[in-house]
User: What shape does this take?
Amino acid sequence: MRRALIKIAAVVAVLAIPGYTFAGEAVAATTGVKENPVLNGATLSPLWALPFLGIILSIAIFPNALPGFWSKHFGKVSLVWSVIVLAGLAMAQGAVVSLHSLIEVAFEQFLPFICLLLALFTITGGIKLHGELVGTPLLNTLILFIGAVLSSWLGTTGAAVLLIRPLINANIWRTHKVHTMLFFIFIVGNIGGSLTPVGNPPLLMGFISKVPFFWPTVKLLLPTLLATGILLVLYYIMDTYLMRRETEKPLQQVKTRLSIEGGWNFLLLAAVIIVVMASSVDMGVAFNLYQVKMPLSELIEIVAMVAITFISVKITRTDTRVANHFTWHPILEVGKLFAGIFICMAPLIAMLRAGADGPMKFIISSLSHPDGSPINGMYYWLAGGLSAFLDSAPAYLVFFNTAAAPAGAAGMAPHAFMTGVLPATLIAITAGASFMGAITYIGNAPNMMVKAIAEENGIKMPSFFGYMVWSVLILVPVFLLVQYLFIG
Assistant: This one.
């Protein structure tokens, strides 16, 4: 893993070299291409969704149908689908467009995503809770509740990777524990992070778009409390029933005092939160590569996350990580799979961004009544549905900008228009994008991470579609109730 970290640092260093600033223009000159290399979603066919569907089906089918093959070659499968997309874009719109798309995915999505996840994964893997934690329904529900509270202030990823190992260890003696992992994903990995821009990527996009920091705290408090409360009650009832069917007993019967090992990592966790918040500040552009801008704040975030990861590795005792059953496999799995997912979703994001002029115009046109007023229920379900399968951040921005289109004619800034004139629509977009990432394993970063860590600890998690059976049956009724009470 140390070699992987060095490679990440090397990539960041190479990209920062000033000589690369005008590389895009140089290539354009040598190829005779002078036009904008940005992928034009309006010219794409809906068939470009097939590679994305292919990688999703690979994740869904191979782990069960060919487990041996998948465990050894999942990175290669992800690479194959990525190459299909990039080669296809090169043939359809030119090599410069394909390269531009790859760099754009790296700058805007993958590098910030994987470096943040790597730092949080490394930090929390160095924190060990000692003492008696017995996975009773009351304790498990309490951990889920604490995770829900922490999610909006540490981020869903931070709260999830911090609490998943203590939760697994508390329930290691139990036969029935898959449902605990699933509700953990629902509550801690998604819905709990809906109250601040630190919590979930869509809210951070809103904050960057000048939506006030505490706007979601006020407007989404009741929907979040309702959804979280229902799920906690449902979980407690289910876990109580399954607890009565347990035949095993807790491994530890002697009560010991709770203590924390690796406490210095909490300071690094605080540093991560500060860096994430600082990344939302516009500090200008660090450099351009093939006409893709690398914001200085984002470059600082990436470098800081890599540095924090190194520090955590250095200050944490190896025994602590061994006691946590810590290995690098989960982060490697998530990194390789999401690299392919981000690349394969690039054409879909481009088609969505094309709006009414693109192949996804049927989606955009379904958002408004004939008189032009927004259909909040459609914004809610479309923002949520796309966030469950695509990246929630661009999905949020697409629908935010679509709804805010009349702001210019009204002489208002988009954020002022959305919070002042269409607050119900903004609630619908924000709640949908933040809540519904729980519907699939790929809907939000913690989902796949929790799955990987649970499986590494011997918990057999449901398949991709098996997980969706759980999520649809449990979450969709809750989301319908939220729509009825708060969105309309």
Observations:
- The CA atoms of residues 123 and 265 lie 6 Å apart.
- The longest strand covers residues 285-289.
- Strands lie at 128-130, 259-261, 285-289, 292-295.
- Confidence is low (pLDDT under 50) at residues 7-34.
